[in-house]
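hey all, quick one before standup. I had two proteins in the batch that finished overnight and I want to keep them in one place so we stop losing track of which output belongs to which input. First protein below, input sequence then structure tokens straight from the run.
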Amino acid sequence: MTLDDLVDATSKDLIRRISRSAALGVFAKRRAKFEGWLKVELVDILISKGYDAIPEQGLIDVTFRDVAIELKTVNTNYRDGIAENTIRPITMNINAVVHDINNLRLNPVETKFVIFIVFPSIDNDRWRRHLQRVNDALGRACCGKHFRFKSGVAGTIYYGQVA
């Protein structure tokens, strides 16, 4: 499986499910994480596409065949006029994504991906520096798909493949 294959197989369904969920809209508005939900939905989507995806094998969030996927939700402190104004440790969240990438690199599975959802997502110099850290850890650029939660909060789902 390539990065494009994973994006094609899952991004539209994930974005559709996220953008239609009133509950996730509340989570995004409160800047609350929802990684467990993401894991359930990703496994459901992959199974519906014929993959034998399973959660939580060998400390990896989702696996199938020779593929390992780590998931994260990254809540930011960026002000968007919709989400509640609170402080969130975005640097620590990015550190966690980079940590997952480094752990994946040590895994003997052939193909390794990271999927992370950023919310509220705002394209600014601070965010681009955080994203560059992830790209550096991956050894290549990740790709992002923008969407809106039902509450109007902007989000971006990023896909990256460990080089």
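OK second protein, same deal, sequence then tokens:
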Amino acid sequence: MQQQVSVITLGVSDLERSRRFYVEGFGWMPVFQNDEIVFYQMNGFVLGTWLAACLATDMQREGLARPGAFALAHNVQGREAVQPLLERLSNHGGRILKAATEPPHGGLSGYVADPDDHAWEIAWNPAWAISPEGLVTFGL
């Protein structure tokens, strides 16, 4: 079976507050939006932010867990881009969880939570190549 992720959907409590974080913070542009959901075309998949109650109804689940035991990551092209992006996201509704530090394997990374407490790692890893299309290749 092909290894791929098609869509990642995050449950959010306030769609406009979430939209501000992703549009004004990251600078991403929605490809579709309505009163319940916003979709962003990513590099090879789609990211959705959907009102949590609607997502729960669609999954036929109650009480979606918060915060999740996972982190999403956004890799940047250079070390100098990590801290400014953490600050920009913080200024647009995010909350810095961990300031930028140098992990043992090299590079620079920090964590920010979106307005719904979804954790995002903002990272530069010199061993991971990023193509002009934004595709990241695992490297050692």
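Flagging for whoever picks this up: The beta strands are 7-12, 30-33, 37-41, 46-51, 71-75, 95-101, 108-113, 119-124, 129-130, 136-137. Helices lie at 15-26, 52-59, 82-91.
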